[in-house]
Amino acid sequence: MKPESIVFAAAGVVFGVIVGYVMGAQDARTQTPAMPAQAGAPSATASQGVPPPRPLDEGRASTLEATAAQDPQNARVRVELGDLYFDAERPADAIRWYEAALTINPRDDNVSTDLGVSYYYTGDADRALKQFEHSLSVDPTHSKTLLNIGVVRAFGKQDLKGAVEVWEALLKVSPASEEGQAARKALENLKAAHPEIGGGAAAGGAPRGGA
After folding, report:
1. Domains of the chain by range and CATH?
2. For residues 131 and 121, what is the distance between their CA atoms, to the nearest angstrom?
3. What pTM was computed for the model?
4. What confidence tens digit (pLDDT) does each residue in 163-185 have?
């Protein structure tokens, strides 16, 4: 999974501790550095430890596109193209290839979440959330999807209570994961800034019913 850093830092609530956190699931395929969010998400600066986007490897893109044209059922190469364009901060191009990959393998929850993050980066929060719903239909406990839903609810929809709800759900199913730890810290900061939000799981303690 590729799309990486939906950066927490906006809307009057600073989540700088999670800047650069890998928000997609491409790290399950290959480890790559985080990059700043694009059109629909807050950006991070070099001073926050987030490297600049990679320039598009035109030669690699051409080779992969030729392979894709020759092999219309090759989902893997289409995912690679999506990753390549996402790295270059070209989410509209990434969307094209992630959608093509999902047409071949619609139950790939990692790619589905990549696609949702890409939609968010083009400013379409509603479409992102709808795509995340598809990811959860494949795996209701997909931790990176749950983390991203909270981000999009908080920053794309200004639905802080909705963000709290989904991050607390993440803490119940995957409290020890990187995503769970990120959600816990986000909840601590969010509730500190907006105590009226409240919520079920204690910000710094064990969530109810945690796995």
Report:
1. 16-193 (1.25.40.10)
2. 13
3. 0.75
4. 999 999 999 999 999 899 999 98
